[in-house]
Design goal:
Elements (H helix, E strand, L loop, with lengths): L3 H16 L2 E3 L5 E3 L3 H5 L8 H8 L7 H6 L1 H16 L9
Antiparallel strand pairs: 1-2
Helix pairs in contact: 1-3, 3-5
């Protein structure tokens, strides 16, 4: 988690791209793939919640900055952070 939220979303988008569920949009943007095979891919059911949120948030093409601001992605990141903290994989510092 050293790279923060941007790194986590980048990995999720890369996983989606490797499965064909996300493709390049206009310069600097990405979009959900229009490929029928990507929509029916069986691994979509077992994708990480952050991947599902990222894919669902691409209802309109977006760059990484905009994707990070979309509500579904922010909620998935918060849940992921909570899960990592609860399992001891992410430390929180009290100020």
């Amino acid at each position: 988690m050293r790279g923060g939220p941007r790194a986590a979303v980048t990995v999720a988008v890369l996983a989606l791209r490797l499965r064909g569920a996300v493709e390049a949009g206009r310069p600097g943007t990405m979009r959900a793939s229009r490929s029928r095979a990507a929509a029916e891919h069986p691994s979509r059911r077992t994708a990480h919640p952050l991947e599902r949120a990222g894919h669902a948030s691409l209802y309109r093409p977006a760059g990484m900055g905009e994707l990070l601001r979309r509500t579904g992605v922010r909620k998935a990141l918060a849940q992921f952070r909570t899960e990592l903290t609860e399992t001891g994989m992410l430390r929180t510092f009290v100020s």
